[in-house]
Fold each of these.
Amino acid sequence: MSESLRFPAEWEPQSAVLIAWPHADTDWAERLGEVEETYIALVAAITRFQPILICVADDDVQAYARARLSSARIDMERVRFIEIAYDDTWLRDSGPISLRGRDGFRLLDFRFTGWGGKFEATRDDQLVEGLLDIDTFSNSSRQSIDFALEGGAIETDGAGTLLTTWKCLNERHPDASRASLDARLADWLHQDRVLWLDHGYLEGDDTDAHIDTLARFAAPDAIVYQACDDPTDSHHAELQAMAAELAALRTREGQPYRLFPLPWPQPVIDQGRRLAASYANFLIINGAVLMPAYDDPADREAAAVLEKAFPGREIVPVPCRSLIWQNGSLHCITMQLPEGLV
C-alpha cells in the first residue's frame, strides 16, 4: 500500500468536511455568540454541497449545536455529530492528514504542539487517534509520526509537489537542516518535490507563517496568493518578496505557475492588535470555494479573483471577521476528508 499512497489535492472529490463546535471551555468563550454565527454560516455553506462531521465536547454541546443549526434551516441529514474531547477548534492543524492508497487510506497523525508550545494542546494532539477509536473513518489506518507538523503548514497539488514555508518548519525544528526537512516531508507525505517560500507573514498570525494564509494551489499549474499593493503597509516588502519567489517557481514541466494575486483588505485592529485577515485562507469543497469575508470592500474583488482561479466552482463568502480575533480564519477551522474516507 505504501508505494501507491498519494496525498490528494484539496480540489479532489470529498466525502465530508470535519470541524469542531466552539463552546464555553474553548478560547472562543469571550466572544462565543459572534463565532457561533460564523460556524452556522459555515455549516450552511458546506451542507449545500456535501456532508459535514462536527466534533462536540459532550451531549449538552451537541444538543445546543443541533438546535442552533436546525433553527437556521440547515439540512440536518448532511450533519453528523461526533462526541470527542478537544482543546480548541483549529482542526486544520490537529485533524488527520489523509493519504489515499489503492485499498484505503493512511491517516498521518503528526504531533500537534499548539504551534510550538504557545497553547495547551494535549487533547488536540490525541484527536486523530480518538476519532479512529470510535470508528469515524472507513477503510483507514493511522500512522503516528513523532514530528511537529500542522496541516496548515503544507499545501499539495495532488501530483507530488508540496508547497511550504521555511519560517514555520524552521521554528518548529530549529536544529534540522532544510535538506533534512525536505527529505522527511517528501517521505512521509509521498511527495517528490518540496517548494519552499522564504518570505511572507501576517501580523497577528501565531502559526509562524502557515502556507495556507499566504499561497495556495488552485491547480497543478496555478497558485493563488495573498498580495499587498499598499507601500505604506508593514506587510508590503515581505509580501512583494513572496510574490517574486512565487514568480520564480516552476511547475514540474518547467513552466512558470499561473499566479492569481488576491487583494489586500484594510487593516483590522482589535484592542490595539492587528488581526491576520487573509483571503488565501479559503476552503475548496465539492463544486465550490468557500471564501473568508471580512466585511471589507475588497471582499468582492477577492471573490472575482477566486472565480478566475477556480472556473466552474461557485464562490461562497463566509463571514470570518470573528475568527481572526483568535488569529485564524476559514481554512484553519476545517479539514476536508477525501471521497471514500467517510
Amino acid sequence: MVTLRPTLEQVAKLAGVSRATASRVVNGAGGVSAGVREAVRAAVDSLGYVPNPAARSLVTRRTDSIALVVSEPTSQVFGDDPFFIDVVRGVSAELEAGDRQLVLMTTDTPAGRERVKRFTSVHVDGVLLLSCHGNDPLYSALGKQGPPVVCGGRPLYGPSLAYVDVDNVGGARQGVEYLIKSGRRRIVTIAGPQDMNAGVDRLIGYREAIAAADRRAIVAYGDFSRDSGERAMHSLLADEPELDAVFAASDLMAIGALAALRNTGRRVPDDVAVVGFDDIEQARYAEPPLTTVQQPSPLLGREMVRMMQRILCGDPPDSPMTLPTQLVLRSTA
C-alpha cells in the first residue's frame, strides 16, 4: 500500500489559510502574523508535512547547502594528517547548528576543478575553500561566479577573498623564541611548502625570531608529511652536524624528524630539542611527547561557517579573521 505524503494544500486547509500564506510560513518569509504562523506550524506538525527541497529552493532561491572544497586529493584529506578532518568536524557542527547541509568536495586536477565550478555555481549557497596551493585556479574561478567564497587560510595570490586564518607567523615565532630562551644556539627549521600560506608564514615566523637573536637561519623544506620531515632532518644533520634544535612547520614533519634523530643516535631533548606545529593527537603519543604550537583547527572550520553566514545575511566582514595559537610544552623541548 502506497502512503501519500502530506501536501502543502492540506497544511493550508488544516490551518485555515491560503496556500500562499502556508508557503510563506514554511519557507520562513515575513508578512505573516504570529497567530497565523503558529497555526501553520501546528498543521505541519499534525500532518507530518516535510517540504519538498526542490520546490522550496525554487521559492527561496536557497539550497541551504554549503560546499567545503578541499584542493587536495582524497587520499590526502583522509590520510595521516588530521588537520582536514578537524576542520571538517568544525564546519559540520556549525552548519548543523544553523540547519544547513555540508557538501564535501575534494579535487587536485583540472577536470576536478571544472566539476567543482559547475556544481557550486548552481547547487550551493556558498563555498568554503581550503588548502589551495599557489595561484590555484579555484581562487579566481570561484571568486568570479555565483556563490560567495570564504577561504581557510590567507590566499597567496588571486582575487581578494574573505578568509579565516590562524596566527602562523606569531605561533612559529613563539616556538623558536622558546628554543632561544632555553639556551639553544644552532636552531634549524624544516619549513613547509612555499606555495601555501601556512608554509610561507611559519617560515617567516622562524626567520623573524632567528634574526632578532642575531642567529643564522638554516632551512630545509618538506611537504608537511612525516616522510618529508625525516628526509629533511637527515639532510640538516649532514649539513649542520652541530645543530641543537629543530623547529618543524608541522607535527608530522616533527615526528619524522624524531625518527631521523633516533636513527642517528641523537638524544631528544638532551642533544637536540624539537618543536612542531599543529598539536595533532599523535604529538601527545610521540616518543618523546612533542612540544608544539597548537592551532585551533575545529574552530577554524566553525569560524569559516560563521563568516559565510554573515555574508549570506548581507553583513560581510570588514576584515579577515586571525585565530590565536599557543605553545604546548611537552618533553621534546
Amino acid sequence: MLTTILLIVLLLALIGAFPAWPHAASWGYGPSGVIGLLLVILIVLMLMGRI
C-alpha cells in the first residue's frame, strides 16, 4: 500500500518537474532526471522484493 502511494507521488512529481511546463522552463532536466532516477530505483526495489 505504501509503495503504491510512493510510486504515484513520484510519477506526479516527475510530470510536474518536466521542463515543458512554464513554471519549470528554466530548471532544465535536472529535477526530472533526479525524480526519474528515484522512480527507477523504487521500481527495481519493488521487483526485487525489497519493498
Amino acid sequence: MSGSTSYHAGLAAEDSVARHYGLAGYRVVARRWRGKGGEIDVIAQAGDDTIFIEVKKSDSHAAAAARVSDHQIRRLFDCAGEYMGTLPNGMLSSVRFDVALVDAVGRIEIIENALTA
C-alpha cells in the first residue's frame, strides 16, 4: 500500500470509528486533535467521561493490534494529559483509553480501557 493510499485508508478508518461511537450514543468532540507531542485520532464524551481513541487499521484485527507501539502509547498519554488541561476537572477528569481496530473489510473491534497509564 502506498503512503498516500495508507494515509487515506487511515482517515476512512477514523471516520468509521467516529461514526461507530456516535451511533453507540457517545458524543464525538474531536477528530485528529493535535497537541504539542502528537495527535489523538478520536476523542469522545459519555456523560462526564472522556474517551481517547487510538485507531489502527490493517488486514486483520490482530495485525492492527500489533501496530500499537510503546512510542504511540506514550504519545497518546502525553497528548491526553494536554487535552485534559482543557477539561473542567483537569487532570482529575474521568478518562479511558480505547483502541479501535479496523480490518481490511471495515469491521471494527473496540477494546475498551485497552491502555492504562
